């Protein structure tokens, strides 16, 4: 989950404001609770199948930040200027110490979040750093910093007061399009996975396949052993594969030789 990253951000904010006891009270109990939960219930089989090196993590962070700030500013062309603006607001003397603390904490939280996730998602590739599940969490944290920067940008140039208005209009239009296209893509991929799981559930080959076999790159956490649960809960209905294409898809999902 994202809990440890938020815990880091809260702790950093309190430390920057020199509230030492509050930092201990806010961070230590939830840190211990998370360690207990992870050692007792936690599992991340996807992370175990990857070997992310430093180069991959750097590329992951770079692409992820570009995607987040590109979405916030309506286009990838403005992603790096937006990042520079956020950093500038943290360094600008006019920001003030009191407001600088949360700005630093929020930006650091986004960076640490992508660094942490990047070490465990090598199997999906660098482009996965732009997945909505990561973007929206980072955008939620970074948005106030970018908004503050856009609100104060007129102090650096009088004509710059029009930049926030233009960015807002373009961002609304672009994000509507992205959400529509993204929903269609995920809907299509989800439907394809449900069809595949139904075919595998209705096949005899699944009885000889490893029970911990992952069936789909799009849904890597769904294993052969999970199919019975999906059937019982009504998520899928077993369908016996009949065509050569369906039998080949089942064999590929189970890692077996083509029929």
Estimated radius of gyration: 23 Å
Number of E strands = 0
User: In DSSP terms, counting alpha (H) and pi (I) runs of 4 or more, how many helices?
Assistant: 10
The residue ranges in which pLDDT falls below 50 over 5 or more consecutive positions are none
Shape: globular
Helix/strand order, N-terminal first: HHHHHHHHHH
Q: Strand pairing plus helix content: what structural class? A: mainly alpha
* Largest sheet geometry: none
The overall average pLDDT, rounded, is 89
Distance between the termini: 40 Å
Helix proportion range: 55-70%
Beta fraction:
under 5%
Quick structural overview:
By secondary structure, the chain is mainly alpha-helical.
Write a structural description.
The chain has helices spanning 3-16, 20-40, 45-48, 54-72, 79-91, 97-118, 132-152, 163-201, 227-232, 244-254. With 259 residues, the chain is an all-alpha fold. It contains 10 helices and no strands. The radius of gyration is 23 Å and the shape is globular. Helices cover 66% and strands 0% of the residues. The two termini are 40 Å apart.
Topology, pairings included?
Layout: H1 3-16, H2 20-40, H3 45-48, H4 54-72, H5 79-91, H6 97-118, H7 132-152, H8 163-201, H9 227-232, H10 244-254
Record keyword descriptors for this entry.
single chain; 259 residues; mainly alpha; globular
């Amino acid at each position: 989950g994202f809990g440890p990253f938020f815990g880091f951000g809260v702790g950093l904010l309190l430390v920057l404001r020199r509230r030492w006891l509050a930092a201990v009270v806010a961070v230590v109990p939830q840190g211990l609770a998370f360690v207990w939960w992870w050692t007792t219930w936690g599992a991340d089989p996807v992370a175990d199948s990857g070997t992310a090196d430093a180069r991959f993590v750097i590329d992951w962070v770079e692409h992820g930040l570009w995607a987040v700030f590109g979405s916030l500013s309506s286009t990838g062309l403005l992603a790096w200027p937006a990042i520079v603006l956020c950093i500038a607001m943290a360094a600008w003397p006019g920001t003030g110490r009191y407001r600088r603390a949360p700005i630093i904490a929020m930006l650091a939280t986004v960076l640490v979040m992508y660094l942490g996730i990047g070490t465990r998602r090598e199997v999906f590739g660098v482009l996965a750093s732009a997945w909505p599940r990561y973007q929206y969490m980072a955008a939620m944290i970074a948005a106030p910093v970018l908004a503050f920067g856009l609100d104060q940008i007129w102090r650096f140039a009088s004509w710059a007061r029009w930049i926030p208005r233009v960015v807002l209009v373009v961002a609304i239009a672009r994000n509507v399009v992205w959400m529509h296209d993204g929903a269609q893509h995920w809907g299509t991929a989800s439907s394809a996975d449900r069809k595949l799981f139904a075919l595998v559930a209705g096949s005899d080959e699944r009885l000889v396949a490893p029970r911990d076999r992952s069936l789909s790159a799009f849904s890597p956490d769904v294993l052969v052993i999970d199919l019975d649960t999906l059937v019982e809960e009504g998520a899928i209905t077993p369908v016996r594969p009949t065509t050569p294409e369906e039998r080949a898809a089942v064999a590929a999902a189970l890692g077996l030789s083509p029929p």
